Amino acid sequence: MNQLGTVGLIAALAFAAYAVVAGAIGGKLRSSRLTTSAERAALSFFVMLTLAVAALEYLILTNNFHNAYVAEHSNRDLQTFYKVAALWAGQEGSLLFWTWLLSIYSALAILLNRHKNRQLMPYVVAVLMGTGVFFSSLVLFIANPFQELSLTTAAGTQAFTPPDGNGLNPVLQYHSMVIHPPMLYLGYVGMVVPFAFAMGALITRQLGDNWIRTTRRWTMVPWALLGLGILLGGNWAYAVLGWGGYWAWDPVENASLLPWLSGTAFLHSVMIQEKRGMLKVWNVVLVITTFFLSIFGTFLTRSGIVSSVHAFAQSSIGPFFSVFLCIILFFSVTLLFLRLDHLKSENKLDSLVSRESGFLFNNWILLALVFAVLWGTLFPLISKAVQGVTVTVSAPFFNKTAIPIGLLLLFLTGAGPLLAWRKTSFQSLKRNFIVPLIVAGVFGVFLLVEGVRHFYALMTLCLSVFVAVCVLGEFWKGARTRMKTGGENFAQAIYNLTMRNTRRYGGYVVHLGIVLLFIGFAGLAFKAKAKALMQEGDLLRVNNYLLRCDGLTNGDTPNYAYSRALITVTKDGRAFASMHPEKRFYKASQETTSYVSIHPTLSEDLYVVLSGLDEDTGKAVIEVFVNPLVVWVWIGGVVVFLGTLLALFPSRVEREMAEIRRTQDIAVSASDAG
Amino acid sequence: MTALSLGRGCPEPAFSSAGPGRVRGYLHGIKHVACASTVAVLVIGLSVASLTRADAPRRPTLESIGDQVMCLCGCVATINHCPHRDCATVAEMRPVIAQEIAAGKDETTILQDLAIRYGVQVLAAPPAHGFSLTAWILPSIGLLAGLSFVVAVARRWRKPRPALASVPDKALDPKLLAAVEEEIKASRMTTRD
Q1: Distance CA A212, CA A206 (A)
Q2: Which residue of chain B is at minimal alpha-carbon distance from A460?
Q3: Least C-beta-crowded within 10 Å: which of A390, A399, A607, B108?
Q4: % of chain A beyond a pLDDT of 70
């Protein structure tokens, strides 16, 4: 099976290399045969990588510890669920997985463009497979997951199969960790498709609307998946790491946020190009930036150039990534400069107060945030290079720099949709903003009266109300018009309104999701914490919760041994919950980890951690956090994802147009045949 | 026509003499005042809250300092968040911090003392002096530079206004000019009525 996997990798690399050459020459010579050949090679690349992935999964699931990767990242007693996930638990497997996802995206891009974008496709295939060549070379030559274990003795080298493996890293043995990396990778890898289309459009000088329309959907999918991946990562950190939070501004977390932010900027500015034929250069720059940051994120995660709690798979692949990043930058920027003449704006701004300007400001803030986060993430390296001292840049820095920018962004989330295309009159501004401002103002005063004094939390909550009123107002205005003119009831009006323009109202749903996320973030300002040594009968009070320790039990499973604290919680004197935090000792890896007990409600989470046992007294070390509004972060993330799906769904108008086009095509074909 | 003009925020409600027009004018004024007051209350309230927060003496606690000090065991977390059970580094650092707090030192002094004792990498954020100051300044500079760029680009892309203002008066037909002025005067009279 190891040989089969290696053969799959070699064949995949060969197909990818051929596809690059055939695609580039096919595009240059406008040869449809070569283009088709390149596309078939790219599909074969997918087949060969699927073979390699299947081989590795088979080795993992059958406990073949002769394979070095399986011995390092799995063990006999690991649940099947987690064995499947062992594919992306280490460097070699995760790079193979990355490459496989790239092949899936490439195959989909080819199959969905069989009859579209034909001039672009040879170059799109060449760029996709160029990336494929890089990653499959890495997997084959630098981080091959099909290495076999051997033992060198005086008698010579002989095959070696250990009786059991080292097991999966204990902190990765959590349900959201099984889907978090695939989502994150789908996000990172997917950004290659818009990049390939942008490069194809630049090479062929086909810089009209087609490539941008195609690219928008291909950006939305990975953008949504990357967002979901980030959210699941936060959920994992919250439930497993046991420090009571979900976002620590760790370099690896930041690396995932950067392409998401620049992708967000692109998804907004692309609308200006579609509607007004403006920002053409800027959109290409954003596509390049997003792809660059995606590869940069992978590089940061894998190379270990910055210290991170999330760096589970580090090795010496950094230099290869550096070279690849330089190639991407050189190739794309050169091409962009060569095509500047073809990227001239078709229109001018009618007014500084318009939807177009709103998008410009939105892009400014998003890019400023990208810069601030990137700068903070890399500053330890820069400091080391300049002054020879490694400084730490952690949460206190990012909270001070990123939160104010984030609040500006939140404001624009509500204000942007209220601005009209071309020009917004003062009267219109007044009419649209007066109600949201009054409601937010009244809410702010209410919070002040209630004793809320945390500035950022206050601002966040007021702005969240402002944005929610703005966005819901848009739904209300549209529905009211339909109710008046079409005689529909409210539910029908909302449904028809949304389905008529899924892109617009899906976007509004995304904005509402962002509001919920920010509400969740604001809750962090009010968190409470307590820590105590507890044994049976001991009490611990946090806010209005009273925790009683009912004892400590020990248990054993094939995979791990555990200590479990039995905690009964009352709230305001009434029975509230029974919580069982655990400390687990994983036998294969000989590592301990916490299994946090969380009782979530819409207003706050009660979060209990068994940190350990006090060596002197034998008492349980119990840490308790009261985390307000955290559940809104998860709900907000899901709403953002659903809103994106809605925006991706073809609207009624789009479907009607497609139907008309199809009918016309049939009529033309019939007349041609006649 | 009059009602429409007033309802949309005609700049001359005070000239309105008709009953319903005057009521609309008052309502319009009340709306303006309500809006302005709300915004003022919001801004003042939030500023006061902000100042209250800024002026409040920050009494350091083990918790607040622990969030700003990195654990040096290699866990890449602050000492409040170190995932290691019975971490020796945390066990050593916490009493040091507790002593500093007990000595009545403020947050800045405690962090400075810790940086001297353990090295600058113990601080969770770079110090705001020397080269590390650039870490703090550059994001703001980036933000402002970006804003200037956006404003400059927006101005450059802005459509030129209709060139009527630049046309010299004598280029216009005096008869046409007189007719236009007459019409404007007539329409004003109608509006006031």
Answers
A1: 10
A2: B46
A3: B108
A4: 96
Residue A116: count of CB within 10 angstroms of its CB: 11
Residue reference for tokens 């892009």: A363
Residues in A touching B46 (Cβ below 8 Å): 444, 455, 458-459, 462
| In chain A, domain spans | 1-151+158-167, 174-393, 399-524+636-662, 526-631
- A309 and B52 in contact by Cβ < 8 A? no
Nearest Cβ partner for B154 among A307, A349, A592: A349
Token couple for A635: 């709900």
What pLDDT shows up at residue B3? 34
Percentage of the residues of chain A whose pLDDT score is greater than 90 = 46
Best of B27, B44, B46 to substitute, by most chain A Cβ atoms within 10 angstroms, is B46
B-contacting residues in A 200-259 (Cβ below 8 Å): 241-243, 245, 248, 250
User: With contacts defined as CB-CB under 8 Å, which chain B residues touch A278?
Assistant: 157
DSSP per-residue codes, A367-391: HHHHHHHHHHHHHHHHHHHHHS-PP
Q: What secondary structure, in 3-state letters, does A392-423 show?
A: CCCHHHHHHHHHHHHHHHHHHHHHHHHCCCCC
Report the alpha-carbon distance of residue A444 to residue A446 in Å, rounded: 5
Cα–Cα distance between A605 and A527 in angstroms, integer? Answer: 10
Query: For chain B, what is the mean pLDDT?
Result: 70
Q: Chain B partners of A349 at a C-beta cutoff of 8 Å?
A: 154, 157-159
Q: Among A371, A455, A612, select the one facing B50 at the smallest CB separation.
A: A455
How far is Cα A376 from Cα A379, in angstroms, rounded to an integer? Answer: 5
The Cα of A208 is separated from the nearest Cα of chain B by a number of Å equal to 20
pLDDT confidence bin for B55, thresholds 50/70/90: very low
What is the Cα–Cα distance from A164 to B91, expressed in whole angstroms? 36
Amino acid at A488: E
ipTM: 0.79
Q: Residue by residue, what is the 3-state secondary structure of A477-499?
A: HHHHHHHHHHCCCHHHHHHHHHH
Backbone φ and ψ of A627, nearest 5°: -110, 100
Cβ atoms of residues A6 and A47 within 8 Å: no
Q: Do B120 and A391 touch (CB under 8 A)?
A: yes
Q: Which residues pair with B158 in a beta bridge?
A: A349
Q: Which pLDDT does position A334 carry in this prediction?
A: 93
Chain B residue at shortest CA distance from A402 = B139
Q: Is A625 helix (H, G, I), strand (E, B) or coil?
A: strand
Q: Which CATH number describes the domain made up of A526-631? A: 2.60.98
In the structure encoding, which two tokens stand for residue A388, read together? 């020879």
B114-173 pLDDT, tens digit each: 988 888 888 888 888 888 899 999 998 988 998 888 888 877 777 666 555 545 555 567
pLDDT score, position A116: 83
Asked if B142's CB is within 8 angstroms of A368's CB, the reply is yes
* Residues 6 or more apart in contact with residue A74 via CB below 8 angstroms: A60, A63, A83, A86, A165, A167, A168
Q: How buried is residue A206: exposed, middle or buried, by Cβ count under 10 Å (0-12/13-18/19+)?
A: middle
- Residue (of A69, A264, A239, A87) closest to A166 by Cα position: A69
Confidence grade of residue A135 (pLDDT, cut at 50, 70, 90): very high
Least confident of A184-188, B46-50, B118-122: B46-50
The arithmetic mean of pLDDT across residues A444-460, rounded, is: 89
pLDDT at B17: 42
Question: Cβ contact (<8 Å) for A367 and B67?
Answer: no
pLDDT, tens only, A142-154? 889 998 888 877 7
Helix or strand run (H / E) with residue A136: helix A121-137
